[in-house]
Design brief:
By secondary structure, this protein is α/β, with parallel strands linked by helices. The protein is built from 37 helices and 33 strands. The strands form six sheets. Strands 17-24-23-19-20-21-22-18 form an eight-stranded mixed sheet. The longest helix is centred in the middle third of the chain and has 25 residues. The structure holds phosphoenolpyruvate and magnesium ion. Its cofactor is Mg(2+). Its main location: cytoplasm.
Length: 954
């Protein structure tokens, strides 16, 4: 993020006119290596399009999109002109802030700057400032107001104890960007102050970027230090921003009115009592901002001018930002929103002008406010209400066609298709009365809540329960309910208000630069549809009684969890990816699933026989009798093979010619060790420690980690444990460890790159491991190593700590997940004790195909000869130095990959516990010499498909 520092400021400059000032600015940016000479043209062109005068004696000269390629490094430079420069239109500039930005990084700077400008007259003070520090102080000096709005209030939270309530309060502050991660820890260290009437107060100044107050209440009565807990205030304290609020609160408590807070029906009632930012009860409309560089100075100016044309107030806010609305007539306030492309703006106007102002402003924003905009892919509430209908042009696949799609859950399924068409919802746009509509909505939400609670209780697997616990949280999100209430008061029907709010929340989620979070929009729409169906009295269509294959456009997790695995043979969808929650639920329920097969599947006539192969990601429409017979035989043989394999799961995996391959388990928590050993694991080949971190609301301390690792080691009873140090970043975020948004998270700061930036975290983890490891065979490895230096830094840390915490049987190695590490294996092998190949990542980086991509992931096959070549290099290098090599990616559990990996010389295969018996059986069916011959052929094959055919026909 761009920051203002005194080094960027040049005091006492003079320029005869604006062109001279621009030249001076360009010279400074060039001299400091930020831009090339051509950037001056950009500064001039930009002023020609419209003045960059911001107000208060400040201008922000910057280039145009055409001169972005002239920027080497994003940065700012400030020139003070005590005599002033005429900037046109009678404006005098005393401070020019020159911006060199490659994209829209400078928006955040403008946001901070304009927030500081406020309404006071700064121009004169900027002109008189005598030092860079004094000038900086002026820019940053305006006190910030206390953040207290609907997003900061969360009522009736299902928490177990006071600590959890504190954690929830801190989370609200973090979501509003008042504090960074770790604030919950700060609060936990403070002594809570009882205010009376069961209300409590906690505050801290540590790590506060913006003052804010959160108020949280527990769902059921709690006690703390033998006193009732009815509600808790968590203050992120900065300066005196909270003083007025505190006075108001004291007066309220003295009057014995605390109950009004903790018995409040919604966040609005709390804000009314506390005097927080209450959204005005004005008509409003929403629009998604499409401008490539967000609401920057030029479009904001256009919007302010348009708004000024109406004789009444207009306010704008960014939905989901946690920030209060600002006046649309103030350029600086609009800039302070820092709105980016893809974010949803809510425009509210005073009732007297709303009818004219809202359509005009929304249309202007849609049209780009004077800029050309690339339209956003929009999903309208109507589209949510009826899942997109089947396009007319798409025809049903012909009988005998085999469709290739994403393998989402393994197994073979045969049965008649049951095609679930889009549900049609019919509802009025306007409601009877706000009170009546609210009652309908509450009843519908209540019914769905009970429904979801039953899914949580019935959930056979933790993964299923977790998904629906999140759904319950979404359903009770006070911000959603507040937005719906506002619409009800404006006359919307319950269904119309609900659809609009859910859809805009889902769009906001999709606009986040995070593939996993964006995928959660599907969960929001899932609960959205359920409540809507309840409101409209629409029931799901009746499914056949015999085992069938469910065909849908996209299944929501709750659709899948509701299915009866005894009646649903398989699932085939038109859209969706392997990491979608519905796929996770299908896997957990053991229902074979093939997803993302394209719109044509929706045209298949119900009753048509389908054959799904969830392992290969294939769906055959009306298969021939022979194909069916083959599939049935394969399915029965597989079942028989699995049963026989399970019988011998505790025996070692030795090939027919006497070559032993170790088969271990991949686990993510200590509790999984017992099951892994019971399923025949000869050790743990990958402990994904990030899952242990993710299970805690804040980073687990050394003692907590040590206890967890100790449980794993004790459970293994002398079998080896391969532990991977924390592998977060990229697509695996830790909620309490925020990482700056990255354009390409998979190529960003993740794995060992991240932990080397936080040696304290790595050191704590290593100490915990070494303390637990004495007396056990402990192997430590680093994830995502791309360079020899990274390995050496990690190794040196282990060696240093090992002096303090000796472990006799310790090996230190790396994961081979990045092609550069495989190519460097001959160098690394001399230094490491072992390699473990993470084929999931190695495949995505080798083939440049995102492992979670909804359509590409089916092709990201680890049996691609290019990936096999890298495995071959790694094994050869390791063996030349007497080191061992494991494979711990999904490939190790693929029955067709086992012969190839064994033939390439891999010494250990680490797979999920349920695959151990099958993998061992696969090894026992081989001879090493045949496997080696097969591997040699695989290495010179042209494609993954060729390799698969080779193994199948061997
Ligand atoms: C891998 O990349 O293959 C691997 C085992 O690591 P993860 O799947 O946890 O990224
Ligand atoms: Mg990996």
């Amino acid at each position: 993020m761009l920051e203002l520092t005194s080094e960027q400021i040049s005091m006492g400059q003079a320029a005869a006119d604006k062109p001279a000032a621009l030249r001076l600015m360009a010279d400074r940016l060039v001299a400091d290596g930020l831009v090339a000479e051509g950037y001056l043209q950009g500064l001039q062109d930009r002023e020609a399009q419209g003045s960059t005068y911001l107000g208060q004696g400040i201008a922000i000269p910057h280039g145009t999109p055409a001169t972005r390629d002239q920027v080497f490094t994003t940065g700012v430079r400030l020139l003070q002109f005590p005599e002033g420069v005429d900037w046109g239109d009678g404006q005098r500039v005393y401070l020019a802030i020159g911006i060199a930005a490659k994209s829209d990084e400078h928006l955040r700077l403008l946001q901070l700057l304009t927030r500081a400008l406020g309404e006071t007259d700064l121009g004169e003070a900027l002109r008189r400032a005598s030092t860079p520090d004094a000038l900086l102080k002026l820019l940053q000096g305006a006190p910030q107001a206390l953040a207290l709005d609907a997003q900061m209030v969360s009522l009736s939270l299902p928490v177990d104890d006071f600590e959890e309530l504190v954690w929830r309060g801190a989370r609200l502050l973090r979501q509003a960007e008042c504090v960074g991660s770790g604030f919950a820890g700060q609060l936990q260290q403070m002594a809570p102050l009882p205010l009376g009437e069961g209300l409590w107060w906690l505050h801290s100044e540590q790590g506060v970027g913006r003052p804010g107050l959160a108020f949280v209440t527990p769902e059921r009565p709690l006690t703390y230090q033998d006193q009732a807990v009815n509600g808790l205030f968590c203050l992120a304290s900065l300066g005196e921003a909270h003083e007025a609020l505190l006075e108001r609160l004291c007066a309220l408590l003295i009057a014995g009115r605390g109950e009004e807070l903790f018995h409040a029906a919604n966040s609005r009632a709390v804000l009314e009592v506390l005097g927080g930012d209450i959204p005005p009860d004005w008509p409003s409309a929403q629009v998604t901002l499409a401008n490539a560089h967000g609401l920057h100075a030029r479009p904001a100016k256009e919007l302010a001018q348009l708004a000024k044309g109406f004789d009444g107030e207009v306010q704008v806010r960014v939905l989901g930002s946690g920030e209060a609305p600002v006046s649309a007539k103030s350029l600086s306030r609009l800039l302070s929103l820092g709105a980016r492309r893809g974010q949803v703006l809510e425009v509210a106007a005073e009732p007297t002008i709303a009818e004219q102002a809202l359509p005009a402003l929304i249309a202007a924003i849609e049209q780009g406010l004077g800029e050309e905009v690339e339209p956003l892919p929009l999903v309208t509430p109507e589209q949510l209400a009826s899942v997109p209908s089947t396009p007319v042009q798409v025809e049903a696949p012909a009988a005998g066609t085999t469709l290739r799609a994403v393998a989402a859950a393994p197994g073979i399924a045969i049965g008649p298709a049951h095609v679930e068409g889009p549900q049609q919802f019919d509802y009025p746009a306007k409601g009877e009365s706000a009170a009546a509509e609210r009652q309908h909505l509450e009843a519908a939400i209540g019914a769905i809540r009970i429904d979801i609670q039953q899914l949580v209780e019935r959930g056979a697997a933790q993964s299923i329960r977790d998904i629906f616990i999140t759904h319950l949280e979404m359903l009770d999100d006070p911000a959603l309910i507040d937005e719906v209430s506002l619409r009800l008061r404006q006359g919307d029907s319950a269904a119309a208000a609900w659809v609009a709010v859910i859809e805009s929340a889902a769009q906001r989620q999709e606009a986040l630069h995070d593939a996993l979070l964006a995928e959660r929009a599907a969960d929001l729409r899932d609960i959205g549809r359920r409540v809507l169906a309840q409101l409209c009295g629409v029931e799901a269509s009746r499914a056949p009684d015999e085992p069938y294959v469910l065909v849908m456009d996209e299944v929501g997790p709750s659709d899948v969890a509701r299915l009866d695995p005894a009646r649903v043979a398989g699932i085939l969808t038109a859209r969706g990816g392997a990491t979608a929650h519905s796929a996770i639920v299908a896997r957990a329920l053991g229902i074979p699933a093939v997803v993302g097969a394209g719109e044509a599947v929706l045209r298949i006539a119900s009753g048509t026989v389908l054959l799904l192969d969830g392992q290969r990601g294939q769906a055959t429409v009306a298969p021939t009798q022979e194909a069916l017979a083959r599939a049935r035989t394969e399915r029965d043989q597989r079942a028989a093979r699995l049963a026989a394999a399970a019988e011998r799961r505790h025996e070692p995996a030795v090939t027919l010619d006497g070559h032993a391959v170790e088969v271990c388990a991949n686990i993510g928590e200590a509790a999984a060790v017992a099951k892994a050993v019971e399923q025949g694991a000869e050790g743990v080949g990958l402990l994904r420690t990030e899952l242990i971190f993710m299970a805690h609301p804040q980073a687990p301390d050394q003692a907590t980690q040590r206890a967890e690792y100790q449980r794993v080691l004790d459970g293994l009873e002398g079998r080896p444990l391969v532990v991977r140090t924390l592998d977060v970043g990229g697509d695996k975020p830790l909620p309490y460890w925020p990482i700056a948004a990255e354009e390409n998270p998979f190529l960003g700061v993740r794995g060992i790159r991240l932990t080397l930036q936080r040696p304290d975290v790595m050191e704590t983890q290593l100490r915990a491991l070494l303390q637990a490891g004495q007396g056990h065979p402990l192997r430590i490895m680093f994830p995502m190593v791309a360079t020899v230096e990274e390995w050496r830094l990690g190794r040196d840390m282990v060696q240093r700590l090992r002096l303090e915490h000796p472990v006799d049987d310790l090996q230190v190695g790396i994961m081979i997940e990045v092609p550069s590490a495989a190519l460097l294996a001959p160098v690394l092998a001399a230094e490491v004790d072992f390699f473990s190949i993470g084929t999931n990542d190695l495949t995505q980086y080798t083939l440049a195909m995102d492992r979670g991509h909804p359509t590409l992931s089916a092709q990201a096959d680890g049996l691609h000869p290019a990936v096999l070549q890298l495995i071959d290099i790694t094994v050869r290098a390791a063996h030349a130095h007497g080191k061992w090599v494991g494979v711990c990616g999904e490939l190790a559990a693929d029955p067709l990959a086992v012969p190839v990996l064994v033939g390439l010389g891999v010494d250990e295969l680490s797979v999920s516990a349920r695959s151990i018996a099958e993998v061992k059986a696969g090894v026992r069916a081989l001879t090493l010499s045949n496997a080696q011959a097969l591997a040699r052929q695989a290495l010179v094959s042209a494609s993954a498909g060729d390799v698969r055919a080779l193994v199948e026909n061997a």
